[in-house]
Design goal:
Strand content: 15-25%
Distance between the termini: 70 Å
Strand order of the largest sheet: 2-3-1-4-5
Radius of gyration: 20 Å
Order of helices and strands: EHEEHEEH
Number of strands: 5
CATH class: Alpha Beta
CATH architecture: 2-Layer Sandwich
Number of helices: 3
Length: 120
C-alpha cells in the first residue's frame, strides 16, 4: 500500500499590510503560535525566507482576497521526504505575467526597423 505524502504550506508576506492582515487572521482562525513562524527557512534554491506555516484552507482564503485587499505574498510548499520547500505558483500568476512579458516584447519588436530584403 502506497503511503500518502504530507504537504506543509507556508506563506511569506511581502509587505507590512499583508503581514499584519495575515497574522491577525491566523491568530483568529487557528491560534498561530511562535512554533509556526520560521525565519530564514531555505527554499530549494538556498534562498532564505521568513515564512509562517499555515493550512491549505488559509492559502485558499488568502488567494481569494489577494486582489480585493491588494495583498502581496508568496506561497511555498514542503512535501514530506523532500529536502527543501518550493515556491507554489498559485492562481497561474506566472502564466499571466509571462503573457504580459510576451506582449511587451512583441510590441517592442514591432517598433524595430524592418530588415531590408535582398533582391535576387
Amino acid at each position: 500500500m502506497k503511503k500518502e505524502r504530507v504537504t506543509t504550506w507556508f506563506v511569506e508576506p511581502k509587505d507590512a499590510k499583508t503581514n499584519e492582515s495575515a497574522m491577525m487572521d491566523l491568530v483568529q482562525s487557528c491560534g498561530a503560535t511562535d512554533d509556526k513562524i520560521y525565519r530564514g527557512k531555505l527554499d530549494n534554491e538556498d534562498v532564505p525566507h521568513d515564512v509562517v506555516e499555515v493550512s491549505y484552507r488559509f492559502i485558499v482564503r488568502m488567494e481569494c482576497n489577494a486582489a480585493k485587499f491588494e495583498h502581496k505574498f508568496r506561497i511555498f510548499t514542503h512535501v514530506e521526504g523532500e529536502s527543501a520547500m518550493r515556491m507554489w505558483p498559485f492562481g497561474n500568476h506566472k502564466k499571466l505575467s509571462r503573457t504580459a512579458e510576451v506582449k511587451r516584447v512583441a510590441k517592442k519588436i514591432e517598433g524595430l526597423p524592418k530588415r531590408p530584403t535582398a533582391k535576387i
